[in-house]
Amino acid sequence: MPSSEPMPNIGDHAEPIAGAEPPQRQMPGILQLAWPAVLGNLLYSTVAMVDIKIVGSLGASAVAAVTTGNRIFFVFQAVIMATSAGTTAMVARAWGAEDHDEAERITKVSVIVGAGVGLLLSMPGILFSDSLASVFRLEPETIAQASDFIFYLSFFNVSFAISMILGAAIRAAGDTLTPLWIGAITNVVNVVLVYALVFGRLGAPEMGVKGAAVATGAAFTLGALLSILFWLKGWFRIQYTRSKSFSAHRLQQLFKIGAPSGLEQGAVQLGFILFLWIVSFYGTAPYAAYGIGVQILSFSFVVGFGFSIAASTHIGQRLGANDPDGATHSGWRALSLSVACMVVLGGVIIFFAEPIARFMIDDDEVVRLTVIFIYILGAVQPLMAIEFTLGGALRGAGDTRFPLLTTITGLLVIRGTVAGVFLWMGLSVEWIFAALIFDYVVKAAMLITRFRRGRWKTIHI
Description:
By secondary structure, this protein is mostly helical.
């Protein structure tokens, strides 16, 4: 395509003509925003499942190492996710108010801040990977593999940051198709590289577990480079602006909105680490079962993520267009669709739990525990839909503090306490898995109450 001709935005719509309906009626619907995000996340989950299958051929220890490495890596991603949450709320509000210049300035500031944060966050993983992997009570071989995974993946933090923030900005402007195509390219490259680098195929060196980390990082680097290229070329709905973008007000707002989300993500990862630490008392098999079970059920989770993105974008834009009633309707509509979809997908996964688990790994005990974990987590899919969707809705409105409070209460206090008591009582690991039910019941009740009261409508950005 000639460089003089802008690449059309995938999912863009024609400009409204004079006399057309008000801007809020031109906004894309919940399903229109959700399905590309859902499809992209399903593709990601499929690739991640293939990755686990590839690593699983190396044994339960390798799966446990990757589970550990990813969990530690996501702790450092919490700060980047904070910037992403602030970007979504601010860009969606500006776009809904038809202030496209402000949306572009916010995006530029967010990308630069996120890249800087990503660079700083690379240091702990590179310098202290052994100590971080040793947090869990795992076998020495597993700890060594997890340390390698953390070390190599940490070099790609900047790529993850750029991909995440640009993707958030584009979606906040109502374009969820373009991130889908970039994600598809990234994920296809990822699975090819994982196969090549884990087993030493296609002329690549045989690297084992560390090869999975390098492959994932390299694939996301390609996605980040494509995103930057399209952004600079003006092929995104959100254009790159050469205007002065840094201001105390934008940075303050980005921090004000994003900081609670960052703390929330930090609490999420801390809660997961605490839970995994308790599970690790029972050995490698339950630990690996947890990692495999979560990966299998991610096919249902990603539907919730998709509707979370749709709710966040829709509510931010509706509030920007001074339509709080429309924002409320969007939130409930997204929730009903999310619950229906997650229940159906979760039911299918529960029905086929054993053959899927056996496909993932050839270890009878890991398979048995994986199936039990899927039964338990599958039963709370409606509650998870509430957390994903209404949590996203509140963040889109700029109400990022309450999801933080919800996470601390449900995940850290309730799940952590219940699991700890079950461990102290000497109950089996199946009871530890069941502790998460209490977590999701509490979080769902809190979020429904908060959204129904409507205080989020009055938050100013």
